[in-house]
Amino acid sequence: MARNLLWASLALAPVVFLLKWVVGAGDVVLFVMAALALIPLAWLIGEATEHAGEHTGPGIGGFLNATFGNAPELIIALIAINQGLPNVVRGSLAGSVTSNILLVLGVALVAGREATIDRRSLVLQLALVMLATLVFLIPSIPGFHGDPNRHSLAVLSIPVSIFLLVVYGVVIIDNLRRHRRAHQESAREPHAAAWSLTASLLALAAATVATAFVSETLVHSLDAFAKAAHLAEFFISAVIVAIVGNAAEHGGAVVIAHRGKMRLATEIAVSSSAQVSMLVVPAVALLSFAVTPALSLAFRPVELVAMGASALFVAIVIRDGRVRPWEGAMLIAVYAGVVVAFGLAGDR
User: Fold this and answer.
1) Which of 50, 199, 262, 271 has the CA that lies 20 to 30 A from 81?
2) What is the DSSP letter of 323?
């Protein structure tokens, strides 16, 4: 029954399109409908990733989910830059890294059960998040004083972005090869009811396109929500936009964890954070020169601390190679503390 409702509720995505372009509905209505539409889309991405994981193994499956799930965030960031909202972009990207490794991973652990994980893969990706945070200091420290959006800092962000992309490419290719060998050596056959790999990838692609549209609509309607709720722009971007932009990973990881596939669920949460910090952020910075004004990677101290400390904390939690529901509750509590810090930080 629940699955039938989720399949039926996928119709909410075209409803959002009609409300926006045909009916001309108000921002509050669009915000509510877009938020509701993201729920079944997140489920579909999680479902397709789980079926793809039957063919590729959990490591590559988690990477696929992170890639498809982060595509909408890249689109949203470029749109926001073109609208002159660099602080919103940086806040949402930093919030995305933090929410994935604390909130998404935490909820997934609570929804699942105690299990063994791929410690090597997760620690490697958490190390990438910490490396990215350290490299972000190069344009961020000069940005602590004066205009953080000045063009010189955007230019300084170019070599930083190229370095991160090269490192990520080298590391992720080696990691994916290791996952592929492990999956082949396991000789595990896909479940009889599993979708074909082609069908899974097509479903992921279609759900990603729909998620990009719905997320963009929701972000455009956030201003009305922010004014009604009297919340700071930074808080909106670092918490609400970050969570909404990553709805696919949030829902997918939790659904998969609830089914007992903890390796795949943990890979989704952690690999998504690594991909945002090492791929999405530098890609947005470089592509911003095409949409203008160019984005500088001058993050605020609270954003840098949140990203680096979150990765370090999760690395400590998973150091024994096992995860437990109570550890998930602890991660959620830590994220609640980060949200409070974001709220107290106010706008730049």
Assistant:
1) 271
2) E
Contact 335, 102 (CB under 8 A): yes
Bridge partner list, 115: 323
How many angstroms separate the CA atoms of 66 and 60, rounded? 10
Rounded to whole angstroms, how far apart are CA atoms 23 and 56?
Answer: 43
Nearest to 68 by CA among 313, 334, 246: 246
CA atoms within 13 A on the CB side of 53: 24
Q: Which amino acid is at 308?
A: G
pTM for the model: 0.83
Domain count, the chain: 1
Instruction: Tell me which residue of 111, 120, 78 sits closest to 295, measured CA to CA.
Output: 78
Classify the C-alpha dihedral 112-114-120-126 as positive or negative.
positive
Calculate ∠ Cα 235-248-288, nearest 5°.
Answer: 60
Is 194 part of any domain?
no
Q: Residue 280's closest CA among 92, 105, 62, 122?
A: 92
* Residue 168: CATH number of its domain: 1.20.1420.30
Question: pLDDT tens-digit profile of 260-291?
Answer: 888 888 888 898 899 899 999 999 999 999 87
Distance CA 235, CA 239 (A): 6
User: Dihedral (C-alpha) 340, 248, 89, 335: value to the nearest 10 degrees?
Assistant: 20
* Amino acid of residue 198: T
In whole angstroms, give the CA distance from residue 194 to residue 191.
5
Domain that residue 219 falls in: 58-187+212-345
Query: In this predicted model, what pLDDT tens digit does every residue of 33-86 receive, in sequence order?
Result: 888 888 788 778 777 877 777 776 666 766 776 677 677 777 778 878 877 888
Specify the length of the chain in residues.
348
List alpha helices for the chain, DSSP H.
2-9, 12-18, 27-56, 58-82, 86-99, 105-111, 119-143, 151-186, 197-220, 222-229, 233-235, 242-245, 247-258, 262-275, 281-291, 301-317, 325-345
Q: What is the DSSP letter of 10?
A: T
pLDDT at 196: 84
